[in-house]
């Protein structure tokens, strides 16, 4: 089924995308790229794990502007093995247009090369399953549609998860117990997750799914965030 383009975006201060549908920003007002580093890359220990892996897979709930992917791609290139391969799979109900991605990511010169690679390959009308080879060692798949239904149809398991839907109070379906169970079922033993939220019902849903969960200091003055892992040996 063809998905609608995300046309419910307004722009604050000329560069920050805001979702009118969910009444929430796509990333931290303080610094979205730094937030990605703290909440997802550091919480999942990727700087430690990337150099040690042959193949590594990341799952993400909420592709949004592609900022998390671009920052991950940048850091992956700095420390990957010569024969390493990163597979990044994201689930997005309302994929952005190429022009909106360009505008949203223009603020960060640090990821300019990654932004250019992404938008050069991004389809004119993003829908269905988007599969992109960004370089010989990096592949991106964006599955456009309902996250729970899309994840249920997959047999893949992931080494790390970025749980990055809009705020739980505004987008509760992205944090439901059924979706957190599906995430757990698609996580390899010892696989990890990070998320900016510390909402109580999200923590309980992650624990009910089977994850071991801990609170950690949040980003940019936010008191807490959540991180954790699926028990078992990798």
What's the average pLDDT?
91
Into how many domains do the coordinates divide?
A: 1
Strands, count: 11
- CATH superfamily caption: Vaccinia Virus protein VP39
CATH level 3 topology: Rossmann fold
Structural class: alpha/beta
Enumerate the spans where pLDDT stays under 50 for 5 or more consecutive residues.
1-6
Write down the Rg. Answer: 16 Å
What's the N-to-C terminus distance? 36 Å
Which sequence of SSEs, written as H and E, runs from N to C?
EEEHHEHEHHEEHEHEHEE
Dominant shape: globular
Approximately what portion of the residues adopt beta-strand conformation? Answer: 25-35%
- State the helical fraction: 25-40%
Numbering strands along the chain, what is their spatial order in the largest sheet? 6-7-5-4-8-9-11-10
CATH architecture: 3-Layer(aba) Sandwich
The largest β sheet comes out as: 8 strands, mixed
Q: Which CATH class?
A: Alpha Beta
Q: Number of DSSP helices?
A: 8
What would your notes on this structure say?
This protein is α/β, with parallel strands linked by helices. Helix content is 30%, strand content 28%. It is built from eight helices and eleven strands. The strands form two sheets. Strands 6-7-5-4-8-9-11-10 form an eight-stranded mixed beta sheet, sandwiched between helices. A three-stranded antiparallel beta sheet has the order 1-2-3, with no helix packed on it. β10 and β11 form a beta hairpin. The chain is globular. The termini are far apart.
